[in-house]
C-alpha cells in the first residue's frame, strides 16, 4: 500500500505563479511579482519538505509516496488487439526526494537573489514568469513516475532554458545562444525519445516502478547479440548528454551564459543540467544489465568531459564562461559517478555541487553587478576590499569546489574517485577480433577504471587551479578596469548577499551527510538514505586504498591552489604570461576550446548550410515556390474561380449545387463500381484461364457475364462469382468479353482482353 | 402497447428543455421594452439605423442565468439517466431510444449551448440587438437536437431535424437590423426547407420499399426490400438531407454565408451543437438503420452509404480547406474550416461502416473536442468586437492582439491549435484516435492520408491568425485594453472552453473511456 | 415488387409535383413563390407517403403525412417571418438581390 500525498501541489504552485506573473505581471508591479514568484516557490519548498519528512518518517514498504489525485490513464486508445495505455502520475521516492529538496530550496534562494539582481530590468514580470515556469517543469521532471512525465518536464525546462538564455533577445548574440542551446538539446532529445519508444515497444510500460519487473525481456539480445536494455540505456544517455552538456553535445552550455546570471545559477548550474545525471540514476536498472557497456560509455564520456572542460577553463577570460566550463567538468564527474555504479556518489556530488556552483554564479553576478555588467576578469582585480561579503563567500565556494577537507566538495568528489577506482566493468564474454577474452576482461576490469580515475584526478587538479586563478585574479591585486567602474564599485544589496551567505554555509556543511565510512563508520548517511533506491557500489575498497586515494586527491587540490597562488596572486604574474607565450599552441588550443565549435562548423554546420542552400535555392525557390506554390496557387485560383462561380451569393445557385452534387454522387456511385469491376485480372495456367473482377470490396452485389471466345454467345450469365475459370479446348488466340452490371440500377461496363493459349 | 409513464421519466432532458423554452418565451413576452429612435445612437453604422426596441435596463438580465440554470439541470438529468442507459430502452412505441450514445451527444450539445449562452448577453448588448426570444429558441432548438440524437424512427429523426432547424433559422436572423443576418436567415431557411422536402421524400421512398419507418425494422427488412432503386434513391435523399445539416460538400454552400451572417454566438452554437446533433442523426441512420450483416451491399456495396460518404468526406475536407486558404474574414474562414472538419468526421462515419464499432468512441471524442473548440473560438470572436455593429472580422484587424488582449489571444491560439490538430489539445487526440481507428481497415488508407495532408494544409490558415495576433503590428490605434464585450460571463465562457480543450488534450484517457462506454442501441 | 398497377400513376404524380416544386424553388426569383414551391415539394412527398401507405395497407404513412402537415405549417410561419425580415431590411423580396455575402 503506497502512501498518498498531494504531490501535484509541488509543481502546481510555481506553475500558478508563472501564470499569474505572465498574464497579470505587468499590472501587478514589481513588489507583487516578486512576492508571487518567491512565495509560490517557497510554498512549493515547504510542501516538498513536508513530503520528504513523511517519506522519511513513515516506513513505507514500496519506499515511495504517490499522488492519487494525479494518477490516471493519460493517453488511452483501444484498437484491435493493440491497446495503447500510457498512465501518468507523480511519485516521490528517496532519489526524487533529494532532487526536490535541492531544486526547491536552492531555487528559492536564487529567486530571492534575482529580485535584487533584476531590479531595474523592464522585463521583470516576464523574467519571474519564466523562472517560475522553469521551477514547475523541473519539479515535474523529478517527480514524474514514468519516462513520459519526466519527458514533459524535460521539454518544459528546455523551453524555459531557451526563453531565458535569449531573455535579452534584443541582442542578436543572446538570441543566437538561445537557439543554439535549443537545437543542440533537440539532438539529444531525439535520442531520449527513441529510447522511450524502443522501451515501450518491448515491454509496453514506461513506469519506473514497472521497468524492473520486465528485465527478463530487456536482457534478450536485440542486435549484434547485445541486450535491448543496452541500446535503450545508450539512447536515453544521448538525451542526457544533450541536457547535461557532455561531449559531444556540450557546446551549448558556455554560450548559454548569455542569459541573466540568476538563470545561469539556477538552470545552467544547479538544477536543469543535472537532469541527465538524475535520469541515468533513475533508469539505472537499464544501465546495470550485463554487459555493462552502456556504463562504460557513460563513465568514459563523463571522464573525458571532466578533463576537457577543466583544461579549457584554465585559460578562459570571461567570468561566467569559466564557471560554465567548470559546470561541464563537474557534470562529467557526476556522470563518472553514475557510470561506475557509484550512483549515490554521483547524486551526492550533484547535491553538493548545486550549493557551491549556484553560489559561484551568484557571486559572479554580484561582481558583474558591481562592475556594471563587465565580465572580463582581466579587467577586474582587487575587488576583495570593495565586495567583502561576495569575496569571502566566494572564497568558501572555491575551497569547496577544489575539494578541500572538510568542505562539501571534498566528500562528494572523493566518493566519485573511490567509485571510479573500485569499478569493474564487464564486457561481452567473447573476444573482439585480435583481442582475446582475457585481454578484454583485463582491460575492462583493471585498466579502464584506472584510466578514468586518472582523467578525473587530472581534472580535479585543473579544477583547483582554474578556480583559484579566477579567485586571485578577480579579488586580489589592484583594480584594472576604468576609473568610472572603480568609482561605482559597491557591495550588493542584502537580498543578493544573504543567499550568498546561506549557500556558503551549505557549501561547508552539505558534505557532512556523506562522510566516508573509513572516517566514521556511520558517516555515509546519504548513501544509506539512497540505498533502497540506488544499489551501493558492487566492489568495496580496502581502507588503506581509500585513505590513499583521499590523500592523493587532497594533495592534487593543494598543488592546484598553490600553483594558482604562485602565478596569479595579486594579479596575472609575469610567469603566467611567459608560460602562455611558451606554450602558445597549447594555450590557443585550450583558449579556442579545442576548436570543437569550429570542427562542428566544418563537419555539420557548413554541410548543413550547403544543403540548406541547395534546399533554399533549388528545392524551395524553384521546386516549391515555382512549381508547388505557384502551381498550387494556380490550382487554388482555378478551383477558387469554380467556387466563386458557384458561391456567388445567390441562394438558388446553391440549390443547383445541391442538385448537381446529388446527381453527381449518384452517378459516381452507380457507374463507377461496375466500371472498376469490369477491369478484370487474368491468370493463366496452361489452358486454364482464371478471371478475377477488379474493384475490390466495392463490388459487393454486382453480377457478371463473360464470353470466353467472343463468339457473341455469353458463356456465363448473371453470375455473382467474381472469380471465373475456363479451360480452352485448344491453342490459339481468344478474345475475352467481360461485363459487370449493377442489377439495381442497370448500369454496366464491358471490357475485352486478348489471351494467347499455347 | 400502452403509454408508459416511465417513458416520460426517461425523456426528462427533452421535456425539461422544451418546457424551459416555453417558460422563457413567456417571460420574454412579459418583460418591459421601450422603443428607442435612431437619434439615440448616431454613431451606429448605416446598416443598423432602424428604430429598434431596447429593453429597460436590467429587465432581461435574468434570462441568461436562468437559461444556463436550465441547461445545467438538463445536463444533470443526462448524468442521472446515464447508469440506466447502459441497456437501451425504447420509448414512445419505439419512436425514441434511450441509450448512452444519445445521452452523451445530448450532453455535448447541451454543454456547447451552455458555453455559448454564457457568452451571449454581453455580445447581444454590445451589438445592440438584445433579443429575448434568443434563449427560448436556443432551448427549443436544443430540444430538437436531443430528439434527433435519440431518434429510433425516421419520423422522429425528421421531427428532430425540423425542430432543431426552425430554431436555428430564426436565431440566424435574430439580428433584425442587420441585412447580413436576415440574408443569412433567408438563405439558410430556403435551402433548409428545400432539403427538408428532399429528406421527407427520402423517408417516403424508404417507407415505400421497406414498408416501415422504424430504423431497426428498416434494417431487418433490408433483405426483402421491394424495389431496390426506390430504396437506394430514398437512402441518397436521406443522406443528402443530413449531409446538408453537417455542411458536407456539395451540400455545404449555405454554410459560409450563414455562419458569416449569423450573430457570432449563434454561429458558435450552430457550428458546435447543430453539427454534433446532425452527426448523431447520421450515425443513427447509417449504423442503426442501414447496416445489416445479411445485406452488406447496403453499407459497403458499390452504391452503399459508405461509398457515398467516402466521396463526401474526400470532397468536404479538400474543398473546405482550399476555400479556407483564401478567406480574409475570420467567421467565413472558420466556416470553411468547419466544412473541412465535417470531412474529417465523415472519415469516422465511413470507418463505422467499414471497421465497425471501434470507430464509435473516436468519433464521439472528436465531436466533443470540436464542439468545445469552435464554441470557444466563436466566444473569443464575440468578445473582441470593437463596438456596436463592428465585429472584428477581417484577419488584419487581429494584428497585435497578442499584446492588446493577451488572455483572449492566448485562448484563441489554443482553439486554433486544437482545430489544426496540435498536441496538447483536444483536436490532436481527436484526429489521432479517429485516424487510428480508420486505419484498422487498409481500404481507408487513402482517405486517411488525404485527411492528414488536408490537416497539414489547414495548419497554414490557422497559423495565419496566430501569426497576425503575435507577430504583426496593428494597423490603426485602438483604445488600449478596450474589450467592450468581454464581460465576466463571456470571459468565463472562453475560460471554460479553453479548460475543456486543454483538459481533453492533456488528459484524453478519461473522455475516451466515457466515449467508449457510450454504446449505440441496436 | 409493389402491387403497383394504378398506384404507379399516383407515385409518378408525386414525383412530377416534387420536380415542379424543385424547379420552382430554383428558378423563381421571388422569395414568396419559392416558399410556395417548397410547400409543393412537401406535399408531393406527402402524397407519395399516402400512396405507399394505401398500397401496403399500413396506416403509418398516413400518420406521417399528418405530422408533415404540421411541420410544413411551422416552416411556412418561420419562412414568412424571415421574408418579412428581409423585406424590412432592403425593401425587396427578390432572391437574387441577396448577394451581400459570397465567395
Verbal overview:
The complex is a heterotrimer of chains A (758), B (522) and C (103). Chain A is an alpha+beta fold. Chain A is built from 27 helices and 12 strands. In chain A, α1 packs antiparallel against α4 and α5 packs antiparallel against α11. Chain A is elongated. The termini of chain A are far apart. With 522 residues, chain B is mainly alpha-helical. Chain C has 103 residues and is an all-alpha fold. Chain C has one domain: Helix Hairpins (Orthogonal Bundle), CATH 1.10.287.3510. Chains A and B meet through β2, α26 and α27 of A and α7, α9, α10, α12 and α16 of B.
What's the structural blueprint in terms of helices and strands?
The complex is a heterotrimer of chains A (758), B (522) and C (103).
Chain A: E1 3-4, H1 9-28, H2 30-57, E2 64-77, E3 84-93, H3 94-117, H4 124-143, H5 147-165, H6 172-203, H7 208-211, H8 215-218, E4 221-223, E5 226-227, H9 228-243, H10 252-255, H11 261-270, H12 275-282, H13 284-287, H14 293-315, H15 319-339, H16 343-370, H17 388-402, H18 408-422, H19 437-475, H20 483-488, H21 494-509, H22 525-530, H23 543-568, H24 574-582, H25 584-591, H26 596-646, H27 651-678, E6 681-685, E7 688-692, E8 703-707, E9 716-719, E10 723-727, E11 732-742, E12 747-757
Chain B: H1 5-10, H2 12-30, E1 33-36, E2 52-55, H3 63-81, E3 89-91, E4 96-98, H4 100-126, H5 133-149, H6 154-172, H7 179-210, H8 215-220, H9 228-245, H10 254-261, H11 264-289, H12 305-325, H13 330-354, H14 360-383, H15 401-404, H16 406-420, H17 426-438, H18 445-471, H19 488-506, H20 508-517
Antiparallel strand pairs in B: 1-2, 3-4
Helix pairs in contact in B: 2-3, 2-5, 3-4, 4-5, 4-11, 4-14, 4-19, 5-6, 5-11, 6-7, 6-11, 7-9, 7-10, 9-11, 9-12, 10-11, 10-13, 11-13, 11-14, 12-13, 12-18, 13-14, 13-17, 13-18, 14-16, 14-17, 14-19, 14-20, 16-18, 16-19, 17-19, 19-20
Chain C: H1 7-27, H2 31-56, H3 60-90
Helix pairs in contact in C: 1-2, 2-3
